[in-house]
Amino acid sequence: MGAGMPPIEPTGDVLSGPVELEVTASDGSRRPRADAVRNRAKLLDAAARLMNGGCGAANLTMDAVAAEAEVGKGTVFRRFGDRNGLLLALLDHVERRLQEAFLSGPPPLGPGAPAIERLRAFGPAVMRHELDNMELYLAAQPPVERRYQVPARALRRSHLTILLRQTEATTDIELAAETLLASIDTTLLHHLVEQRGFGRSRLDAGWQDLVTRLATPLA
Description:
By secondary structure, the chain is mostly helical. 61% of the residues lie in helices and 0% in strands. The N and C termini lie far apart (43 Å).
């Protein structure tokens, strides 16, 4: 997931589908070998076992994954680059489930409902998803200079931009999409829930209010 990767932008009213989190650099010239795919799955299975066994994302190390998978530590580094790359790979499967839900799942989150209803469903769905996977999302946070270039975030922004345009909102669409995304930022949700005691119903109501203010055309 290199810092130079261009963000995903909407083209028309259709998004192409779920995006990979791009945890390692690739020139796109060839598909991974079957043994590389198997080795990656083996390492991720080992990492998941450690996390499910009580290790937690914050304490997951490359050494521990190598030992659990019975491979050399160099194998783990070659496959994922660094610890953040490993965490992003673990995060990929849960992020893709969310992407599939809002790109092709049932309405109102997925296609088939009016744009305003899909916008109203999007925030609560993302908040539930991130709160349920909060430890992993926090541990996999990229450096500040790359945080807004993550392909998965760009896909969310593009999705919101398309829906806002379909509502014929008269606001600055790109800024409105960024404002909506900022309101459900992972670290902000953690702060509001864990440190300030906000309930999910309050967060959902706040999203609905923000959507109404940003997506309702002026009379």
